[in-house]
Protein 1
Amino acid sequence: MAKRDYYEVLGVGKDANETDLKKAYRKLARQYHPDVNPGDKEAESKFKEVTEAYEILSDPDKKARYDQLGHAGFDPNGFGGQDFGGFGDIFDMFFGGGFGGQTRKGPRKGADLRYDLTIEFEEAAFGTEKTINLPRWEICSECEGSGAKKGTRSETCSRCRGTGQVAQTQRTPLGQFQTIRTCPECEGEGKVIKQPCLECNGKGKIRKNKKVQIKIPAGVDTESRLRMGGEGEAGELGGPPGDLYIFITVKKHKFFMRHEDDIYYEQPINFVEAALGAEVEIPTLHGKVKFKVPEGVQTDTVFRLKGKGIKNVQGYGTGDQHVKVKIVTPKNLTSEQKELLKKLDSTFNEEQNKVEETGANKEKGFFERVKDAFKG
Ligand SMILES: [Zn+2]
Ligand SMILES: [Zn+2]
């Protein structure tokens, strides 16, 4: 069968520019691609024909040779051999992600990464910036991800002609069967690297410790997750990178407890202060606050310092600080102090000696009890 003119095959004029050629090829290649026409011999040969035409016409040197000599400029037997190459990239561009059910590998999004980060209580409350060392795969800058040595290119796999698949025909008494499997030559990549990049050994990617700057917003808590788009592993064959997820753990504070955006704190006072009332200094995340404990305060009484909690991570206001008064009974009193207390005790009447019940529900979980206790 006589070879058709390459321009005719692609349906373009001799003056077609690069864009015209690409457009024409793209349209026809999609139409005749073996993945779209499984088992269709005619489509397969059409596909080969347009691919061949495009391969020649898109290469300025080959195009010049073809324009001058026609098909005679190329050894038809050599086609499909070492001379056939250089459009792997176009394949990726057109067929990436691909048609349903195909096994050929196209561009793929890189893997998402998880990084566990432990931060201080205050850092969670006010937000912070952290630089982490993240080991991840990055596109090799030497070969720009192609995996081919600088100055060379990956070549279209001659076995599968870049489709990543090969068809096997079996003749049986019942008829002819065709099975399609992943090309063993290129393992489905559609291209082969003759001279691998020395920097990445042909992988196109390099494992690197990348410094990543993380902005942690105020109000995060343990189990908060931050997503950093595009900071995951490099994509495959030109695919986009994956995402990075930061899993936050917040360290415990020496004397603050946190529940959602509220802070819980216990303020010890002695029983004289409790009886007479006192002005005490209470630590908060926002600095010390002077607070007047009223006369006759009972232990476990809770006061609320409005707005002294943690800023809501979604911007819904700021929590409060709950202050629970703990009356500390003095130990190691001197005999003089003991005498004074005895004297004081003898002045109490029956009403003043009444004991108040506290109602902590011991059946509830720890946090429930803490919250209950703070409700006062
Ligand atoms: Zn490389
Ligand atoms: Zn192959």
Protein 2
Amino acid sequence: MEKVFLRGESLSFHSEAYRKVAANIEYANIDNDIKTIMLTSSLANEGKTTTICNLANVMTDLDKKILLIDLDLRKPSVHKNYNLSNNGGLTGYLINKGDYKDYINNIDIGLDVMTSGRIPANPSEIINSKAIKNLIKEVSVNYDYILLDTPPIALVSDPITIATLADAVILVIGYSETEKEIAKKSVDSLKRVNANIIGTILNKYPMTKKNKYYYKYY
Ligand SMILES: Nc1ncnc2c1ncn2[C@@H]1O[C@H](COP(=O)(O)OP(=O)(O)O)[C@@H](O)[C@H]1O
Ligand SMILES: [Mg+2]
């Protein structure tokens, strides 16, 4: 499988950047206390979903079991990146119950994906539910890392709630002055709930400046 892609297009020249992020996660996890990692950004289109899918893909090289869950219940798009149907998924599991494994897609050795499922009328309620907490607890037994995609933090409160469920948070920042300015506010709101921000990823860095991704370690 080509590991790094953007809407189906191969991005092999970016692999190195994603691998660095994966390696930094492993360093941050020296005490094995990081399992659930949330990715977020302030605004839409900063590259959260692209980054988390590609990160999940390269993390399989660590010989770890990865589960990627789409917790963006407003504009989910993980399923599009993997060409998966979005029937079932997380909201399907929460409504129909049963075995969560029936709502998971295997993508590659070591990589499973749970799509968002049908967009619910009450996303905040679902994100705040005990059922989500329980699901994360249950899947934790079977995976080394659980990656959580989220909606934009400056627009909805879901990521703040999700941050309280995650062991670590990575903030994606689109390369523009506004996005950098707003990112500071996002960091503040994450810190207010004691989120463990382990890094930021500067995304969409102009290609002419050589590196498209830049990972900063706190
Ligand atoms: N590093 C990048 N270089 C070029 N295009 C990118 C990059 N990261 C994301 N994109 C594109 O930007 C758009 C938004 O990305 P997406 O990952 O869906 O953002 P978000 O999940 O934050 O809303 C998509 O069309 C995606 O293909
Ligand atoms: Mg997204």
